[in-house]
Design brief:
By secondary structure, this protein is an alpha+beta fold. It has one domain: NADH Oxidase (3-Layer(aba) Sandwich), CATH 3.40.109. 39% of the residues lie in helices and 15% in strands. It is built from 8 helices and 6 strands, in the order ααβαααβββαβαβα. A 4-stranded antiparallel beta sheet has the order 1-2-6-5. Strands 3-4 form a two-stranded antiparallel sheet. α2 packs across α6. The chain is globular and about 60 Å long.
Length: 221
Amino acid sequence: MMKDGFKPYDAQRFSKEETAKRAKAYYNFIDQRRSLRFFSDKWVEQEVIEHIIMAASSAPSGAHKQPWTFCAVSNKEIKAQIKVAAEEEEYTNYNGRMSDDWLEDLKAFDTDWHKEFLEIAPWLIIVFKKAYDLKDGQKAKNYYVNESVGIACGFLISAIHHAGLVTLTHTPSPMNFLQKILNRPQNERPFLLLPVGYPTDDAVVPELSRKSADQVIKYFT
């Protein structure tokens, strides 16, 4: 007997061969994804951004609390404010806050405190985590907030790549300035900033290799 509040699950069913084919195809597709710092100012329709964000919002979350807010910014003045504030934090990071080891590891990416892409990319998506919800002025608990929002960000990055767009996971630390600029409530904390758009025609990425399967998987059969 079906319990109240439940409905049958409409499962996708594939043959063993099709399952293997789809798994390999998705791996080959997502393995092409790269973090990019060279953005075109070519416009991306708001409808596209909405679908990408709603794909992210379909992610699982603790007790289905969905403890996230996605702020999608295309306003040039707000993007300029974000760039100025982010570069202030990044300048401090690169000039004393980061360890020597950290700076050495970053040399392969040829990056510094300048973040022009924050103004050039047509959209910035700022993900906020809800430490708690507010219902009638009262705090309501959320569960596994960091884990839930982290999973949603993974969905978001995959959806961006699937749409033929590029992004970069940007975390200028500390990020409290985002809460102030976007006037977000006290229960929301900035989690991740993602510029979203098309790559420039001359975009380049570092020559890197990802770890092999035997380096990241341990089977217990």
